[in-house]
Amino acid sequence: MEAPEGSSVRRDQRFCVVVSRFNESVTERLVAGAVETLRAAGVDPANIDIVHVPGAWELPLGVRLSLEHADYEGVLALGCVIRGETPHFEYVSMGATVGLQALARDSSVPIGFGLLTTDDGEQARARAGGAKGNKGAEAATAVLEMCDLANRLR
Asked: Residues 10, 11, 21, 88: which is the catalytic one?
């Protein structure tokens, strides 16, 4: 994947990928897409930190802790919630989404939203490097574009 138009990433800039372990066969594919996109944009792989959290519910806290303890140019939140037979799906999806949105709104560091919320595993796999692309790569592209915007506005 190409770097976003006008991208001004330097090799020494640090990025963090916060990823949930739940549905790991999907989330690790999201991580691969995100890391590949950051590397293609010129980010040194040694400057990409991967932080694992138990599930999507923990993504907002994982992002917040990462921002509090290191100087990152951008952070990505990657996870996957697959609909089940109970309302648990709605609570986890909405809680993670609202938490990440609040962090993105209140932070001066761009935060990429790569949380899949799908009806089944097939849909998740299609969006994690399958027929529907890789949402981890898309989240990384969005973060790179927002980093560029932030740098131009400073």
From this structure: 88
* Residue spans per domain, the chain: 15-153
The two beta strands, 111-118 and 128-130, are: unpaired
In order along its 154 residues, the chain shows pLDDT tens digits of 444 454 567 777 999 999 999 999 999 999 999 999 999 999 999 999 999 999 999 999 999 999 999 999 999 999 999 998 888 889 999 999 999 999 999 999 999 999 999 999 999 999 998 999 999 999 999 999 999 998 888 7
Sign of the torsion angle spanned by Cα atoms 38, 144, 30, 102: positive
Distance between CA atoms of residues 138 and 2, nearest Å: 11
Ranges of beta strands (E only) in 10-123 are 15-20, 48-53, 74-82, 111-118
Residue 52 known to be catalytic: no
Cα-Cα-Cα-Cα torsion 130, 133, 138, 141, nearest 10 degrees, comes to 110
CATH class of 15-153: alpha beta
